[in-house]
Amino acid sequence: MLFLLSCCSSKKRQERRLWKQIEEEAEKLDQLPSWNAPDNSLMLQAFEWHIPADQGHWRRLQHVLPNFKAIGIDNIWIPPGCKAMSPCSTGYDIYDLYDLGEFHQKGSRATKWGNKEELQSLLNHAQDIGIGIYWDAVLNHKAGADFTERFSAVRVDPQERNVEIAPSEEVEGWVGFNFPGRGSQYSSMKYHSCHFNGIDWDHARQRSGIYRIDGHDWARDVSCENGNYDYLMFADLDYSNPELRNDVLNWGEWINTELPLSGMRLDAVKHYSAGFQKQFIDRLRATVRQDYFIVGEYWTGDVKSLLDYLQQMEYKLSVFDSPLAGRLSNISQTQGADLRSIFTNTLVQTKPDHAVTFVANHDTQPGQSLELPVTSFFKPLAYALILLHESGQPCVFYGDLYGFKSDVKNPMTPSCGGKLPILTQARKLYANGLQQDYFDKANCVGFVRHGNRRHPFGLACVMSNAGPAKKRMYVGRQHARERWTDILDWCPRIVIIDKKGYGVFPVAAMSVSVWVNDAAEGRDSLRQQLYV
After folding, report:
1. Does 267 qualify as catalytic in the annotation?
2. Does residue 506 sit in the same domain as residue 470?
3. Domain holding 454: CATH number?
4. Which residue out of 297, 321, 482, 486 is catalytically annotated?
5. 471 and 362 within one domain
6. In this entry, which stretches build a coiled coil (predicted)?
7. What is the pTM of this model?
8. Catalytic (active site) residue 400
9. Which of 96, 247, 267, 482 is catalytic?
């Protein structure tokens, strides 16, 4: 009995020391770097896999740009806008880098998304209202060749690409690109077998497989999965070829003269030369602007692989935090999962300045190859974590904002009960300044943002993946006697901050609540923007 009393007393003393430390730190807000920090920025992936192939998406996006601005979106990542092998294609089966919907090729002048004039109008309007545009650059491969060529190649083991499984033989591959609709406008480069190192189809024998073209090797500075993961799909570009390197470097400079871009997403970065990627980034920052934003898509659940890649790239870019996306999915589906470990072994935990966090994207949405289901109750918890927590650069997904449009007449409903725009606005208005985590219980965690000079109100966020709960958290003596309410309206109670600056913040079962001063800036208008 004495031992139990001693343990309880010790625990209370530890809690009192912790609360005192929190109070002392919060009393010195104006001495912290976060007090004068710039506003939070937010990125939106402005498409999902099932956007209608009606060549109208550039117009749709231009129409809703003011709504994006109103809910706190600063930059939008648009889909690959270069000509693909089909008018209905999303664009990752890329055909011509220099055709932005300008030339009649592959069955259409426009891409799935629209024509070049509409694309330019979208970007000009975005620039006028202060929204940046990130281009989706697909530089690993080419598809939809105009003609075949014959050459020698060797089949390799798909699971171990350094192992040959058949002798070299003559094959017929789709590697000839002469761009008959565009000709030599913008670039005189034509592509032949010498510009590729691998294919996956021998047209002469009508046989699939991974073939390494004789006289070429896989790049060494790529992922070592499958022995060497240079080859991904279609006709794989060989960046050891100087003519190819020069053409793609020139394209990076050219597209930024055609469009006022703020940055790029580099697709499939673990599949092509990291050395070339560094050269490409250096060229963009030398010819466009020094703060040109780059984020790479390196898909892996292993955070060490991302850290190794960042080091190899000399930290010239950010990377999508795919390990975090995997953890959000797993925890959402595991009854009683420990929320305290949600950031364990993630990029945002180890290199937050280079982590782009996300809950879902076009590859992880339902039915896709990298599907990572997040249960509906957990989706708002996940978004609250990436949007309101201080670490990382979050990216919101179009499919969660609007719903997935598997067909135009029957779109699905938005995620988070339609309240995702409230969370994006809360990021701007309240998720600022010093952060204090209360990750002290397995199934109920919380954190406080104390605000800063421009946004002094702050917030208290609490979430549960089990039953209803509550958490006592310190928001500051300056808030004593204030009435705080849940901006999501999922917990209808009122919390009164006590004279010491503490509040006891409740949360409903399997839910999240975000508490702010009821008189806080923008509080009333949040209810008016549940949908955009």
Report:
1. yes
2. yes
3. 2.60.40.1180
4. 297
5. no
6. none
7. 0.93
8. no
9. 267
